[in-house]
Amino acid sequence: MDKPIIYQMLPRLWGNTNEKLHKSGTVEENGTGRFKDIDKVTLDYLKSLGVTHIWYTGVLRHATCCDTRGCTPSSSQWVKGNAGSPYSITDYFDVNPYLAVKPEERMAEFRALVRRTHAAGMKVIIDFVPNHVARDYGKFSPKPIRKGRDAQGHPVLGALDDKTVHWKPDNDFFYYPGQSLILPVKGTYKEMPAKASGNIYSPEPTVNDWYDTIKLNYCDFHTDTWDRMYEAVCFWASVGVDGFRCDMVELVPAEFMTWLIKGVKAEFPEVQFIAEVYQKNLYNKYVHEVGFDYLYDKSGLYDALHDIVTGNVNNAGGPIEQWQSARRITWNWQSLGDVQPNMLNFLENHDEQRIASDFFGLDARNSFAALYVSLFFNTAPFMLYFGQEIGERGMDEEGMSGKDGRTTIFDWWSPASLRRLFLSVHGKGELELEEKAVLEKYRKLLAFASEDEAIKKGVTYDLCYCNMYSEGFNIDRHFAFIRKYGEETLLIVSNFEPKDSDISITVPAEAFEWLQISQSDSLNATTPVKVHVPACDGVILNLR
Question: How would you class 192 by CB atoms within 10 Å of its CB: exposed for 0-12, middle for 13-18, buried for 19 or more?
């Protein structure tokens, strides 16, 4: 079995080569990428990196201020950014018109993208957003025949609700009878009665709330809302989508997700589900009871590696706190138990700050030590975010998204590094020297993860506990482990320090016994393995 390597990309930004950008600009001013830009050349490039799955973010039709390219604008009073959030869905059964060359043929263009992706040997993942919808869900259609119905002809969510009560089992939304919606942004938008927003039960959401969304009412027993959402997932599976990244599932009843996953897999056995989950105490439940294939390990390995990298880079080798210690990597895997293979490891995604940003590692090369751990530590899948492989910094000030270390998902934009990557892939330009160096490193490591049997299938042995007092080994700044499969034994060492390290690694007798490795004159429990590890980097040694 191949190690799943997932590549998250926002089609809106890929292929947009416009250099003349305006802060908070319109789509006419700043441009947009389209489905067609994810062409065979792009897909061949991703396949060459070892990518097995592509998560196309922002495909489902969402609220936007755009009034051209087949779009009907939603209210700018609550849409976040001119382009809008990919998680403020206006139709679960449609794709964004602005992503198509011919908006009226947008579904055909998306189906063609799915076919291209499959032909290139990769699988398609899209978002499933079960907790909330846009404030004007289903009200955008220009065709009278569709009034009050979604793209598949179903009555839109909320159309049959009793709005005279706050809650009712048959209602799709939560209402505040007699109270108007009070938004944190001034304007003329009217919503009476107010509906609860995606993350808060209140008619008056704050600027920090998801005020561009309405929370769905599931109950903890089967309702029509369950059926509507099941139909949506099955619709996309029938289109050829291979997996769903499920947004904020902790806000949705586990009973619903259990029922949904079981039902969908009965019809589409190969479809996979990835959960955005943040409570580590729920990991076992979401894997063993609810049925998710993979879970974000954001609150575990990601947070640990983030703190270790920032602690070492920003302190320039000075004292670090316990929460910045490499020991957290050990503590994390020990807490996971048998769900380790179900964790989705990553160093970037659209919610988190870019590694190369001023808020994280300052330079993409400072994260290589973390990459060796996240990518190689176990058989779990690994995800990277488009542009990560060349050091995209996320330091533009685009509009709704400020200079916060994140590449915007709210604005019409074209990050310079992604322009260079697109043009380079298509033979029409070149990357900068630093970008080329980062890409070459990612190519090498991703290829190794994709091809090496010990990485794809092997067991792991953490060596840190037995090297606390080894020469040159710093338990807070270094991490060492073995991957073993068949006759192959790999020693992998990460150095989080901003300086080169010469380290002696002891492989204890217990490791030889547990891994079923025979000792020899050159490899034994009494002779340390000498390793030189560059600053903020890692090494792989084949011991057999």
Answer: middle
Q: Which is it for strands 343-346 and 132-134: parallel, antiparallel or unpaired?
A: unpaired
Torsional class of 373: left (φ above 0), alpha (ψ -120 to 50), beta (otherwise): alpha
Q: CB-side exposure of 481: number of CA atoms within 13 Å? A: 24
> Is this model's pTM higher than 0.85 or not?
yes
469: domain range?
A: 458-542
Token readout for 377 is: 């530590």
d(CA 173, CA 159): 10
Q: Provide the sign of the torsion angle of the four alpha carbons 28, 31, 33, 37, taken in this order.
A: positive
CATH of the domain at 503: 2.60.40.1180
Question: What is the mean pLDDT for each group of 10 consecutive residues in the chain (544 residues)?
Answer: 95 98 97 99 99 99 91 95 98 96 97 99 99 90 51 80 96 98 97 98 98 97 95 98 99 98 99 98 98 97 97 76 93 96 98 97 96 98 99 97 96 98 98 98 98 98 97 97 97 97 97 94 93 98 91
Q: Is residue 422 a part of any domain in this protein?
A: no
Amino acid letter, residue 371: L
Whether residue 80 is contained in a domain is answered as no
Instruction: Judge residue 487's burial from the number of C-beta atoms within 10 Å of its C-beta, 0-12 exposed, 13-18 middle, 19 or more buried.
Output: exposed
CA–CA separation, 11 vs 406, rounded Å? 16
Domain count, the chain: 1
In the three-class reduction of DSSP (H, G, I as helix; E, B as strand; rest coil), residue 111 is classed as helix
Beta-carbon-side half-sphere exposure of residue 528 (alpha carbons within 13 Å): 17
At residue 51, the 3 state secondary structure works out as coil
Determine, yes or no, domain membership for 467: yes
Gap between the Cα atoms of 108 and 439, Å rounded = 33
The answer to the question of residue 501 being in a domain is: yes
CB atoms within 10 A of CB 374: 24
In order, the DSSP letters of 217-245 are ---SS--HHHHHHHHHHHHHHHHT--EEE
Tokens representing residue 221 in the block: 């027993």
- Helices 106-119, 40-48: axis angle to 10 degrees equals 40
Q: Count CA within 13 A, CB hemisphere, residue 348.
A: 29
410 in Cβ contact with 396 (< 8 Å): no
